[in-house]
Specification:
The chain folds into two domains: 45 residues; 205 residues, Glycoside hydrolase/deacetylase (TIM Barrel), CATH 3.20.20.370. Helices cover 48% and strands 15% of the residues. It contains ten helices and eleven strands. The strands form three sheets. Strands 2, 3, 4, 7, 8 and 9 form a six-stranded parallel β-sheet that branches. The protein has a three-stranded mixed β-sheet with strand order 1-11-10, with no helix packed on it. A hairpin with a 4-residue loop joins strand 10 and strand 11. The longest helix is centred in the first third of the chain and has 33 residues. The chain is globular, with a radius of gyration of 27 Å.
């Protein structure tokens, strides 16, 4: 068979041989692309990493979270409102905020709230290397631990920005990245009634709700939101109690499911 093939090639004209060589080169390039490039694309799609936006729960459970990066006008007021209803929330704080307001960080911890990591300086993490991300998160965690005695296990990316390398770096530290599926938009200084409507219309079992500790109308809206959730049979828990402990999967919406 091979001998006949060589004889047939030997009878080809120079022009035919060049054409055959060109076709062979194209076919070889196609094979290399399919064998090397395509698996990388498929792999990237299959391994896209997402933070937790919400959690699949049979029970009516929800978490209230507050980001603290700049102001501190309402922190004690929020503590008082949450305490009135015995609600424990999760506060994601920036390291520089801890530097400015260590007494508020201690007050949050003493009131039973979870104090978690929101970066050291509210940087854009997508532009940082993995080593820089780890160093930044550790710097914030060191500050929180120095005040509360507890090292954070959860991280919320500044600006809600992330990509695969950010999430991979966070999880390499044994921490869980947390987003939200209900945004109060309180930072836009919308009215208390608008904040109330946004939260109560969008919340569902397993939701993580986003507020800010220094937004203009958040304290005004918070008490009515808590009363609504309680009246609807929701248990309001810290994120550490909402998320699934152990093996899990995350779907393309960021919802966490038991494995």
């Amino acid at each position: 068979m091979l001998k006949r093939l060589k004889e047939a090639i030997g009878k080809l004209t120079s022009r035919q041989r060049k054409y055959l060589t060109a076709v062979g080169a194209i076919l070889l390039a196609a094979v290399i692309f399919l064998a090397v490039e395509t698996p990388e694309i498929v792999s990237a799609a299959n391994t896209r990493q997402l933070p937790i936006y919400s959690v699949e729960r049979d029970q009516k459970m929800v978490s209230l979270t507050f980001d603290a990066a700049w102001g501190n006008e309402d922190t004690q007021t929020l503590i008082d409102i949450l305490g009135k209803y015995n609600v424990k929330a999760t506060f994601f704080v920036v390291g520089e905020w801890v530097d400015k307001y260590p007494e508020s960080v201690k007050a949050l911890h003493d009131a039973g709230h979870m104090v978690m990591n929101h970066s050291d300086d509210h940087a854009h993490f997508n532009s940082l290397t993995s080593d820089q991300i780890v160093a930044n998160i550790n710097a914030c965690s060191d500050k929180i631990e120095a005040v509360t005695g507890v090292r954070p296990t959860l991280f919320r990316p500044p600006y809600g920005e992330y990509d695969d390398h950010v999430i991979a770096a966070v999880r390499s530290m044994g921490m869980e990245p947390i987003q939200w599926d209900v945004d109060s938009l309180d930072w836009k200084e919308i009215s208390a009634s608008e904040i109330y409507s946004r939260v109560t219309e969008k919340v569902s079992p397993g939701s993580i709700v986003l507020f800010h500790n220094a937004a203009l109308h958040t304290p005004e809206a918070l008490e009515d939101i808590i009363k609504f959730l309680i009246s609807e049979g929701y248990e309001i828990v810290p994120v550490t109690e909402l998320i699934i402990d152990g093996d899990y999967t995350i779907d393309n919406t960021g919802r966490q499911f038991p494995a």
